[in-house]
Specification:
Elements: E1 21-27, E2 30-31, E3 35-37, H1 49-53, E4 56-58, E5 61-65, E6 71-74, H2 76-89, H3 97-110, E7 123-132, E8 145-154, E9 165-169, H4 186-190, H5 193-201, E10 206-208, E11 225-230, E12 235-238, H6 247-258, E13 264-267, E14 277-284, E15 288-297, E16 300-303, H7 313-326, E17 337-339
Parallel strand pairs: 9-10, 9-15, 12-13
Antiparallel strand pairs: 1-2, 1-3, 1-8, 4-7, 5-6, 5-7, 6-17, 7-8, 11-12, 11-14, 14-15, 15-16
Helix pairs in contact: 2-3, 6-7
Bound molecules: pyridoxal-5'-phosphate (PLP).
């Protein structure tokens, strides 16, 4: 398949097999030199550590075309570093940061035909991941691992504009104090599936998870961090050791401060104060920001003044500035845009 044969504007967020993926194996205490392969399948022993005890971590980032025609990725070094942190917490051998970035470059360059055109809204999603590959039956870390990155083109996250979503306060927890909520582990997603299917059945788009110790503070959703805008135009984002440190959220905080002159506060956010905010958004690589119009707490509706029709005005400014930086329309801070070709 080449660039021309994909209908970019009608792509969804699903897996489409591309030509090449990167593989490196860890054995006898070292990563091999790694390289690209055309084989999209993995053959594993029935007792592989990942299949028995879920020893697996992942990352997610995008490659896309900028206004001036380059193919770039956004802050891949931060994905690399976060994967090192995730690996350490699950007793896995970290894949070196520089090698991660090189592997991203190789996968993107090898699948350049699948990088959607500028302005289509579509992007090429990259999925780095690592898992325990040798047989493990007694509970312990694997001794062999595989690191891979594949690429799959994905459509515009919002077809026809970003409509505010409705989320509910969830009775299930996503992360415990001193647990694994701050790393990008597959296990955090496995245990959120019941809650998200249930939320959808009840008519909600997402779950708002609270801190599991007191159930009074806002944490995040299954896969995105919160930002709130106060009535006097300040950005507030929850601070907690059990939130996944979103690169999008960290970038938005920088944009708010340095580009828009806003005050930024990272602090504990109580469920009881949600009604005081003017705007709310969810941030992550996939959508950048999804506006939240309403939070439902066991029948009690908390409606943000920005409403259910469009993104709040400050959220929109943040969204436009960050996506402008990503797409090369606005000058980026040093090191944010990683040019591949
Ligand atoms: C990946 C992820 C995010 C978003 O992080 P980005 O780096 O912005 O893509 C937020 N929360 C959770 C739980 C995640 O796994």
């Amino acid at each position: 398949m080449s660039n021309k044969q994909i209908d970019w504007s009608n792509l969804g967020f699903g897996y489409i097999q591309t030509d090449k993926r990167y593989v490196s194996n860890y054995k006898d205490g070292a990563w091999d030199e790694g390289g690209l392969t055309e084989d999209a399948n993995i053959v594993l022993n029935e007792c592989a550590g990942v299949l028995q005890y879920a020893q697996t971590i992942f990352e997610g980032l995008k490659a896309y075309r900028t206004e001036d025609g380059h193919i770039v990725t956004f802050r891949p070094d931060l994905n690399a570093q976060r994967m090192v942190d995730s690996a350490k917490r699950l007793q896995m051998p970290p894949f070196p940061v520089e090698r991660f970035v090189e592997a991203v470059e190789q996968v993107v360059a090898a699948n350049a035909d699948f990088v959607p055109p500028y302005g289509s809204g579509a992007t090429m999603y990259l999925r780095p991941y690592m898992f325990g590959s040798n047989p493990v039956i007694g509970v312990k870390p694997a001794s062999e691992y595989q690191f891979r990155i594949f690429a799959t083109p994905v459509g515009p996250y919002f077809k026809g504009g970003a409509k505010p979503i409705t989320i509910r306060v969830c009775d299930y927890d996503r992360a415990a104090p001193h647990g694994t909520g701050h790393i990008k582990a597959g296990l955090n997603y496995a245990m959120s599936l019941y809650a998200i299917v249930d939320a959808h059945e009840q008519g909600y788009d997402e779950n708002m998870y609270l801190d599991s110790a007191t159930r009074t503070k806002v944490e995040e959703t299954g896969g995105a961090n919160f930002i709130f805008i106060t009535k006097d135009g300040k950005l507030v984002t929850p601070k907690s050791d059990t939130i996944l440190p979103s690169i999008t959220r960290r970038s938005l905080c920088h944009v708010a401060k340095e580009y828009l002159g806003m005050e930024v506060e990272e602090r504990e956010v109580y469920l009881s104060e949600l009604g005081d905010f003017a705007e709310c958004g969810l941030c992550g690589t996939a959508a950048v920001i999804s506006p939240v119009g309403k939070v439902v707490d066991h029948g009690k509706e908390i409606c943000f003044p920005s409403g259910m029709d469009e993104m709040g005005p400050i959220t929109k400014k943040l969204y436009d500035t960050l996506t402008g930086i990503q797409m090369g329309r606005i000058e980026a801070p040093e090191g944010w845009i990683h040019v591949i070709k």
